[in-house]
Design brief:
Strand content: 5-15%
Strand order of the largest sheet: 1-2-3-4-5-6-7-8-9
Structural class: mainly alpha
Largest sheet: 9 strands, parallel
Radius of gyration: 38 Å
Distance between the termini: 119 Å
């Protein structure tokens, strides 16, 4: 008793089990209770694996394979994650029916060649290990999911293209510098994670894959290839923490829709193909054989030097490409000035030019996709006009370097519809442009402001027009809804109130009814000419006319 008290409670507790449990079959004084529990649970897990075919040895700090005394050859799923294994156990490579193998968070440095025995393996997770290379024979397995993230990989072998059934590939958090183009052969790949590597560029071959998720964040990528616009099944694209230049960072922040719009526009600008609004190639494809692209074939007796006027927009009798675009649109569509500017970004040479800043602003507008469809329809309309006009007798034909058109005029009779004459369309377009320019000049000179290039968008909310009415006659518009820093864009209801208040003020000030525009001319940007007439009539009112407002 003295000895027990001198050694503390430990001696007493030790003596008690020895006295009562000395006959226990598994008792060893050198093994504590936790080790005994671990050994029993390990035996139980191995016994369950024999019966169920699912081996779960996760989180047991194993350094060696413990199942040598058990027949586990029928195992279909094995989880040996969160241990201290330095290699894949050779016994595991003999599990022929194995379908899923999880070796996450171990100390494995290489993959043995015996793994090719697992010809039914579809899932392999060997992430958070010490792998420096992936062997070539690994990709001869029928893998559908391969996770090798958080290793020390510096490259991916070209043999990865043999994994035809691979649907998910995760090689994130490595040191990979180049992604092999053979990745483009993985025709079943749905998810690709190459996050946190050292990549400088993306292979164009990825554009042909049916990807639904692409993550290349935390790399050194500066450009998304324009061919990635063909990733039509892509639902999630993650590209943060990259020094992006194309698309610019402000577009990348807006999400997938704006990124793909940018890629489509870049393709239209860089490539000259029929799918990219290249009208000359369409003209060559659909024009009959008598028509050619040479000026001498149309005018054999004229000089077609640089000063001849062919293809120039100077002179009253010369037709520019902008005027031709308006001719086609006036026959079938009503194309606004904004749409013509959009065509210029697609390599059709029009009168208005845009720099990169203007391109970035246009990309932010939600209706660009619809405008692109309308332009594509214009191309089809141009082809239909060519085929229709070729059936008539031909005396004149004009060909432009970028837009091919044939408008025939009979020498004996006038066309049945005068609206199709080029002269009238040219004059109509010139008048519209002059009236829009006059509208801009009137507003800027009276209000001492500088309007943006898109006059229709600047007038759509009615704020500028209401200020103009108050400038002509103070307090003619009693209440004006204006944007604020918290709400930078007015709702459509407030825009309509501003426009209606402006039109009511014009009526009270004495603007004739036939000079008044309608609300939708302002709100929908479809009648800048009508708006210009209303503004001009308001400015032309005599000085004594506003004094009648109080009498009314």
């Amino acid at each position: 008793m003295k000895m027990a008290s001198s050694q503390g409670g430990v001696g007493a507790v030790t003596a008690l089990p020895n006295h009562h449990l000395s006959n226990g079959p598994h008792w060893n004084p050198g093994i504590n209770q936790h080790q005994l529990h671990t050994a029993r649970s390990l035996d139980r897990a191995l016994e369950d694996a024999v019966c169920s075919g699912t081996l779960n040895l996760s989180g047991r700090k194993l350094r060696d394979y413990p199942g040598l005394c058990y027949d586990l050859t029928d195992t279909t799923q094995a989880d040996m994650s969160k241990n201290r294994l330095t290699e894949i156990p050779p016994e595991v490579c003999l599990f022929a029916p194995l379908e899923s193998l999880n070796l996450y968070h171990n100390c494995i440095k290489c993959i043995p060649e015996t793994i090719i025995n697992l010809q039914m393996l579809t899932y392999l997770n060997i992430s958070r290990n010490l792998l420096s290379t992936l062997p070539k024979y690994l990709f001869s397995l029928p893998l559908k999911v391969l996770v090798v993230s958080n290793n020390k990989l510096v490259s991916i072998p070209e043999e990865i293209g043999k994994a035809k059934e691979l649907m998910e590939l995760d090689i994130s958090c490595n040191e990979i510098q180049v992604l092999p183009p053979q990745v483009g052969r993985l025709q079943a790949l749905r998810e690709l994670n190459i996050r946190r590597n050292c990549l400088h560029m993306l292979p164009e071959e990825l554009a042909d894959l049916p990807l639904t998720r692409l993550d290349f964040s935390c790399n050194k990528i500066t450009e998304i290839p324009p061919v990635y616009r063909r990733l039509r099944q892509l639902q999630h694209i993650i590209l943060d923490n990259n020094p992006m230049q194309s698309p610019p960072a402000q577009i990348c922040l807006k999400g997938k829709v704006h990124i793909f719009k940018y890629l489509n526009i870049q393709t239209c600008r860089l490539n000259k193909k029929p799918d990219s609004l290249d009208l000359p190639s369409l003209g060559k494809r659909f024009l009959p054989q008598p028509l050619t692209d040479s000026m001498e074939d149309f005018y054999p007796s004229k000089n077609h030097g640089p000063d001849s006027g062919i293809g120039s927009d100077n002179g009253d009798k010369r037709l520019s490409t902008t005027e031709y675009g308006h001719i086609v649109s006036s026959c079938y569509y009503s194309v606004s000035v904004k749409q013509l500017a959009y065509v210029s970004d697609c390599h059709v040479p029009v009168a208005c030019s845009s720099d990169k800043d203007q391109l970035a602003e246009e990309e932010e507008e939600e209706e660009e996709e619809e405008e692109l469809k309308e332009v594509l329809d214009l191309r089809k309309i141009a082809v239909q006009l060519l085929q229709q006009e070729q059936q008539n007798s031909m005396s004149h034909a004009i060909c432009f370097p970028y837009v091919v058109a044939a408008f025939c005029r009979s020498s004996r009779q006038e066309p049945s519809d005068p609206s199709f004459t080029m002269r009238r369309k040219m004059e109509h377009l010139r008048e519209e442009m002059e009236q829009v320019g006059l509208l801009r000049q009137n507003l800027e000179s009276r209000l001492k402001v500088l309007l943006p290039d898109d006059v229709g968008a600047a007038l759509m909310d009615g704020v500028v027009l209401c200020h103009l009415a108050n400038h002509i006659r103070p307090r003619s518009v009693a209440s004006i809804h204006v944007p604020s820093p918290a709400v930078p864009k007015l709702s459509m209801a407030k825009c309509r109130r501003n426009v209606e208040n402006f039109l009511d003020a014009c009526k009270k000030l004495g603007v004739p009814q036939d000079k008044l525009c309608l609300p939708h001319h302002i709100l929908e940007e479809r009648g800048l000419v009508k708006v210009g007439m209303t503004v001009q009539a308001l400015l032309d009112l005599p000085a004594s006319k506003p004094t009648q407002l109080s009498a009314v």
